[in-house]
Every structure is written in structure tokens, then in C-alpha cells.
Amino acid sequence: MLDRVILTNDDGIDAPGMAVLEEIAAQLAKEVWVVAPEKDQSGQSHAISLHHALRVHERGPRRFAVTGTPGDCAAMGLCHLMKDHPPQLMLSGVNRGVNLGIETVFSGTVGGAMTSMMLGVPAIALSQAFTDRRNVPWDTARTLGAATIQKLVETGWSKNACLNVNFPPIPASEVGPIALAKQGEGLIGGMNVETRTDPRGMTYHWLNFHRSDRPQSPGTDYSAMRAGRIVVTPLRYDRTDEDAYNDLALKLPKFED
């Protein structure tokens, strides 16, 4: 059993997925610390707050709500609240909905985990897929979460990556074994801008993603999810596109030390 873990998310400290994650973490660590956003911070990616103050509200023993992003929470927890006794692991989630493909770029769940990785603490982002937004199958993550995390901790992984774990939207008894998969295309096909008028006659705009059932490359995360597997994808900060780099290297001079 681990000595201590830190939890965060992007749906907010009162989200049902956080309650699930606290149940999971209690099976893995002697001390569980929660440092999570006071309000929903979905879509904040790796953002940190540089232009306004952060406030921390204690919600109970080792439980703190932060007026900021998941990245702020990771920094506040690791660099302030737990500075003298750092955790051995960061768990971020359990997110309501998948974080697969290009969506990982926007995900605050993944952003919190990657901020922890940057600060030297291994991290796992966890998400629960659903088919009905009003009936998220939390019991799948609740039932399989601890064993999945334990297996990953025992296996180990590079300090330069965090792990992105997604549970499929089916009962735990029907879920296949863990599957390692690469990040794929995902379902985002663009963005929509909805323009509306408020009661004072002023125009405002609402952004949302346009999703479509796009073809997925073999061996990638969304294909593994469709196969009913627990999907594990290691993610890193280095976004260099090797194919594009090699192509441009034929036309542009490369920097050499």
C-alpha cells in the first residue's frame, strides 16, 4: 500500500467522479489528499492561473477546494499543501466521459495529471465512458479502478509520461483486460459556435465540439474502447511530429549543437 496519494479532477470537488476516485484511492493508500477545483473546470487543459489570485477552502481533513484549474490544483497540492511530505502518486478523475484521441489536448483531467508529472510526481488520469449522460456507469470504474491502478504502479512507467486510462461504458463483468493503445484520431470533427441573445438584448456565444464517428487507426485508443477494454495510453509533453520533422529536414537546415 502507498503512503499517500493526491487526487484532483476537472469536474469539480463535488462531482460524482471524485467520490468514486476517493473510494478507489482509499484501497491504495494510507493517506488520501484531495486538492480539486471548487467549480467545473472542464476543457482547461494544462492552464495555470498567472493573472489572478487563488483561494483554497478546506472541506475536511486533507480535502481542499481551489478557485482554479486542475493544473493550479496540482501545483497547490504538490508545491504548497504537501510540500514537506509529497505523495507517491497523483490520480486525476474520474472524469465523466472519455478522454481519447485529440480530446486529451483539451482535457483538464489529463492536464492535472501532466502538471503533476512535470512536478516530479507520477500521475494517472482516469475517465469513465458513457452512452447516456444521465446514467454514467460509475460502478465500472469503482469496481475495476483500484486493481487497474495497482497493476500499473507495479508495472511502472517512464517519469517523462503520465498514463491516460479510460474505462468502457459497459458493466464491469463484461470488461476485457487492460489494453495498451496509442492515441488515435478520436471523434472531434470541429467546433460549433452558437450565438444567442441574453435578456438585456446583448449577444453572446457558446462554444462546443462537433463530434462524428470518424474512422480510427488500428491499435489506437478509441478502437480499444469499442472493443470493451480498459485503455491505457502513455502521454508526454513532447509534441514533435517526427514525420513532419523528417520531411522538413529535407528542405530546411537542422539546428546542430
Explain what this protein looks like in three dimensions:
The chain has about 260 residues and is an alpha/beta fold. It has one domain (about 1-185, about 215-235): Survival protein SurE-like phosphatase/nucleotidase (Stationary-phase Survival Protein Sure Homolog, Chain: A, 3-Layer(aba) Sandwich), CATH 3.40.1210. Helices cover about 25% and strands about 30% of the residues. The chain has seven helices and eleven strands. It has helices spanning about 15-25, 70-80, 105, 110-120, 140-155, 220-225, 240-250; strands at about 1-10, 30-35, 55-60, 65, 90-95, 125-130, 160-165, 180, 190-195, 205-210, 230-235. A nine-stranded mixed β-sheet has the order 3-4-2-1-5-6-7-11-8, sandwiched between helices. Helix 5 links the parallel strand 6 and strand 7. Helix 1 (about 15-25) packs across helix 5 (about 140-155) and helix 2 packs parallel to helix 4. The longest helix is centred in the middle third of the chain and has 18 residues, at about 140-155. The radius of gyration is 19 Å and the shape is globular.
The description of the largest β-sheet is:
9 strands, mixed
* Name of the CATH first level: Alpha Beta
- In spatial order, strands of the major sheet run 3-4-2-1-5-6-7-11-8
Low-confidence stretches: none
Mean pLDDT equals 95
The CATH superfamily is identified as: Survival protein SurE-like phosphatase/nucleotidase
**N- and C-termini, Cα separation:** 45 Å
The total of beta strands comes to: 11
CATH-assigned fold name: Stationary-phase Survival Protein Sure Homolog, Chain: A
Instruction: Identify the CATH architecture.
Output: 3-Layer(aba) Sandwich
**Estimated structural class:** alpha/beta
Secondary structure tally, helices: 7
Radius of gyration, whole Å: 19 Å
